[in-house]
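Appendix C: a fully annotated inverse folding record. The material below is reproduced so that readers can follow the format used throughout the book. The structure is listed first as tokens, followed by the designed sequence.
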């Protein structure tokens, strides 16, 4: 199974390390031929507007969107979650996303009060102990469509509960950056549970 890490901007190296610790040998992908041959994709944390801009510059924006629509297993952390969201609040003018998750996210939602927010979150699918989640200028989920499974929520600085880990079929996303904390359970879950939905490449 070829797992690609979208290598345009962001914490690419950290995702590489997390995946390697899960026994996967990932490949860096940024060109059309590379995107065409992967069986799964990780979209790193970073800056969603920059990643989208660079994906268009490298001529892979539409290709990634098409492959996600066709069922490519994909995991997005933080900026990656924004890029997988069908709807974005507080986007910059003209900001595009690949989509795939029937969710609305609010960009920089935690960042307006504080730049970094940490919380221990429980994800039933990952067992115990709770996961230390680090949110860096992170989005939160404002609403989810009926087909979306909420894996974790936190009481956010606005006093409301917001989903911060969601899954819809082969699309998995977290508002936080597990690649930065050394807890690889999200990556393991992606490899073991989400990637098994991979379809053969036509
Ligand atoms: N604020 C960033 C964005 O809008 C996301 C931050 C992150 O990925 N840590 O893309």
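Designed amino acids, in order:
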């Amino acid at each position: 199974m070829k797992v690609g890490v979208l290598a345009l901007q962001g914490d690419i190296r950290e995702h590489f390390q997390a995946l390697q610790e899960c026994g996967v040998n990932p490949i860096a992908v940024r060109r059309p031929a590379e995107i065409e041959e992967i069986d799964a994709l990780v979209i790193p944390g970073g800056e969603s507007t920059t990643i989208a801009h660079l994906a268009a510059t490298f001529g892979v924006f539409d290709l990634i969107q098409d492959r996600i629509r066709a069922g490519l297993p994909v995991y997005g952390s933080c900026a990656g979650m924004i890029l997988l969201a069908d709807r974005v609040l507080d986007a910059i003018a003209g900001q595009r996303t690949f989509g795939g998750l029937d969710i609305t996210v609010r960009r920089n939602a935690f960042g307006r009060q504080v730049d970094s927010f940490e919380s221990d979150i429980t994800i039933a699918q990952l067992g115990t102990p709770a996961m230390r989640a680090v949110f860096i200028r992170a989005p939160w989920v404002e609403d989810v469509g009926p087909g979306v499974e909420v894996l974790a929520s936190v009481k956010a600085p606005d006093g409301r509960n917001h989903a911060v880990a969601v899954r819809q079929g082969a699309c998995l996303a977290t508002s936080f950056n597990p690649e930065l904390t050394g807890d690889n359970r999200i990556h393991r879950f992606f490899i073991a549970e989400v990637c098994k939905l991979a379809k053969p490449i036509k």
